[in-house]
Specification:
The chain is mostly beta strands. The radius of gyration is 32 Å and the shape is elongated.
Amino acid sequence: MTNAIKRASLLTDITATKTGDAQSIDKDGDSNRVYKATVTGTGAVAATIVIYGNDVESNSGGVALGTITLSGTSTAGPLVGTGASDRVSLTFTATAGTLTLTGAVSGFVAVADATNGLTSNGDTGWFCAENGAEWEVFLGTRVDATHLARTTVLSSSNAGAAVSFTAAPTVFYTVPGAKVIASGPAVSAYRNTSNQGMTSGTFTKAELNAETFDVGACFDSTTNYRWTPNVAGYYQVSFAANIGATSGLTNVLSAVYKNGAVYAYGSFTAPAGVTQGITGGAALIYMNGTTDYLELYAYGSGTTVVIKFGADGTYFCGHLARPA
């Protein structure tokens, strides 16, 4: 077998399939080259590339300006390096790259299994690759049925950087803890101390002036009485309003507003001949983590209608369910 080193230009792949012969490639002598070689065979791989100063692909008629030596193993992935000029001799060591999938471990399905694996090119999933003390947790992208690209390294035995495995690793699906635990704002706010007056038959913002907790300090309980979480994601919220009147209370309703407009209504009640009614609800809401905000509004009809105070009746609670 001969080396499969093809003609290359700037940022063009050079593929080496075994330890082998030196070959010349087409280069025009410019400086600040960036070369990339991808190992595709098995076992040790090495190749010497001779750079010529004219536009030729053989060692006849050109002036040799220098060499670039590629070395590594087939499990190491791309061999990458840069030179200050063409008049250099560099040894490129393996960093990270595409893994060749050779088949499923006994008792398990393959990474690219048509039913339970990454079924289509471009599909992604979290994986761990292990070879003894060498390990890497990464986002893998299916290239094809036998190749998995190591797209994003989350953590590794190489201080969080890509690992150059010394032998073919075992690769398996994993669920990184950092991707499971939702860390973000959480709040429980309520109306305290006194009832809040409201206009009969009109939605009124509940001035929630106290907090049981406010993780992330995102709730304004003094001026605007709103929650502006600072992490983008999906938030689970629950809310309730305790509405009172001196007489004739009817049509009790609550709602959570997003950016000044109704997002979700709570339960609706139409009591007759009573002076108190409680309404509440819940919703899952996407928040952008910067400008989006939520508020509690209440509605009631009757004589001298109020939003009654108390953490057990008029409240707003929310937490980050999943980051964006």
